[in-house]
Every structure is written in structure tokens, then in C-alpha cells.
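Reviewer comment 2.1 asked that we show a complete input and output for one of the modelled complexes. We chose the pyridoxal-5'-phosphate case, as it is the one discussed in the main text.
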Amino acid sequence: MSDIKSLEQQHIMPTYGRFPVALVKGQGACAVSDDGKTYLDFTTGIGVNALGYCPESWVRAVCEQAATLQHTSNLYYSKPQAELAQRLHELTGFGKVFFANSGAEANECAIKLARKYGCDRFGETHTKIVTLQNSFHGRTITTLAATGQDTFHHYFNPFTEGFSYADAESLESIQKAADADTCAVFIELIQGEGGVRPLDPAFVKGLSDFCKEKEILLMIDEVQTGVARTGKLFCYEHFGIQPDVITSAKGLGGGLPIGACLCTEELGKILNSGMHGSTFGGNPVACAGALAILEQVAKPEFLKEVREKGEYLAKKLREIPGIVEVRGKGLMIGAVLEETRKAADIAKACVEQGLLILTAKTLLRFLPPLNISCDDLDRGLAILRQVLNP
Ligand SMILES: *Cc1c(COP(=O)(O)O)cnc(C)c1O
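Response of the prediction step:
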């Protein structure tokens, strides 16, 4: 650890606050550090290793593709890309997809698509986008601008113009923020980084109706909530709405970098040759990994188990003294602590006891592997209970 730490301090920009752990291998819900200590992982990266560490079918698919063809430019047709696109279409009904490498990049695509839609349909100025206060959409200059939190709007001026931020509880606030030049509303349905805050279904339904009426695109950032994380393949399915655009990333590649922007058949005509692209986007190895992940997580029985495990985890968390509120859906759960306790301190103490756990704002956040066993859930819960009640 100390070698790695000193190399890092010499050579890597200090942009991350890290726990004093270097993980070197993993299997299922467990990872092992360089000093041989085993950790139970309730983080999956940050919702990335959807089926835990090194799941068999994913490893096989990825290794086979890497040994066959690791990359071609997007100047040529790609079988893994085409197959993943077809699978996503079969599973969601969305007509077209663009493949990127990350959540922020998938969101950039959605933003470009929305602006071009507004421009084509209503004119050059019709390119404003409404997002929500307390949202998180990524770290590029434009997705930071889309992010509705002032703390992200320092140092890097000028930010991309054309975003306004509405209150996530109030349809009136949306109606006020959406002016005659608004082309899209772009939201998370459960604000992840913002503190695991699920939106009110009535608000979401009202928003969807409002967008339809005004021909404003409804775009959902499913980067964290997608790929079965909430117990449906995508979170919007819980809300009885049909968005125009969704973005996916984190869990999609099962640990490999991939992002996707999915849209309706009609919107799929808007960005054409030369208007958008990516050198690495839709990499064959990442696509093969994503196909292997979808193969498992899209099954109705699997999704049902995610919902059941989520309910179990939430119920058990509610029974732990020191936790005052539990919220979220499926295996995307946040636990609010009594005011006297700091989530960062609790997370640190859990790591020392062999449980990797995330925070979001002042909450503890749980994003365990979607296929975690109830035994592993119980083991993690026991560590957390002990840390909160020594
Ligand atoms: C993590 C996240 C992003 C950014 O994804 P990157 O892959 O880090 O670019 C965007 N939106 C949401 C909702 C996220 O949770």
C-alpha cells in the first residue's frame, strides 16, 4: 500500500480523496487488497460492477472478444455494437442508440440531440434545457453546467450556457423554468450523487404530460439507475412514463467503460453523419461485456430478485439503531443517519472492519452487486450494525 500510495502522490493529480486501500483482485461480492485483507463490497465501484467482481459469463465474453478483435474505428461496421444495439432495442423499445464511453459522454450526446431537435423543429434559439436542482450529470464542462448544484459551478468558467434549474418537487417550478426556447427537460428519477432522492411519481407524471403538451423532450439520466439497479431494467419503468431519450453507463459494461444514449426511432434521425462521434465509443470488448450483463440482468426473475433483495436490505437497515430514514429503489439505497453521526466517518470505520460502503452527501449509500447473496447482505449489515453501535 505505502509503495502504491507514494507512487500515486508523485505522479497522479490529487483529484480523488481515497480510502487507504488498494484492491488487487475480486470474486463476486468480495475484493482482496494488496496486503491480503478481504473486503465485502457494497459499492460495485460506484454501481459499475453490476454482477460483482469477475462474473464468469462476463469474463468469458470479454476475454473472447479481446482475443478476437479488440478495436476497430467507427469507420467500419461492428458486430458486437450492432448486436448490443439490437438487444437494447428488444429490451426497451427505443429505436436508436449512440455508444459512448461514460455517463458524461452519454449525457453530452443527449444534450446535443436535444439542441439539434429544438433547432430543427423550432429554430436556432430553441436550445435551452431544464434540469433539476441537486442533480448530477457528469464532470465535463457541459454536464457540470447541466448539474443543478452551485458547488460544481466554480473555477472552470465559462460554463456552457442554456441550462436552468427547477425545483425537483414542483411542477410549477418546471413550468417557470421552461420558456419558449426550451427543447428538453433532463432529469434523474432517483438523484444518486445528490443523496439518493427518489422523485415523487405524481410530479414525474405531471412533468411527462407537460413535456408532451409543449413538445419538449423528456430525457432521463439513467446512468446510475439503469441496467436493473432499481429492480426494473430502467428506472422510468417504475413511473409509468415513456421518455424520449434515456442515457445509460455505469452498470452497463459490468466494469468496462461504455455509455449509451437511447432515443425514439423519430429522434434517431436527428444526428447524422459527421455530427457526433467517438474514437472509442462502442468498443467491441465493452459491447461484448454489456451483452453478457444484459443477458443476465434483464430476466424477469432476476429483476424480481433485485426488488426483493432491495426490500430486504431496506427493512434490515431500518432496524439498525442510528439510522433514521431509508430510501431508494431496488439495490440503490440511501440511509440517513442521526444528526450526531457523520456518514464519512461511518464509511471509514466500515472499511476498517472489512465492508466497502459509499456515501452521498450526508447519507450512507448502498450499491451492492445485483446478484449479491442474502448471506453477504447479512454479513455486511452485521458489520454496519456493529460500527454504528459499538
Ligand atoms: C455517475 C453519473 C454520471 C457521470 O458518469 P461518468 O461515467 O462518471 O461520466 C452522470 N449522471 C449520473 C446520474 C451519474 O450517477
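The chain is about 35% helix and 20% strand. We note this here for comparison with the apo prediction described in Section 3.2.
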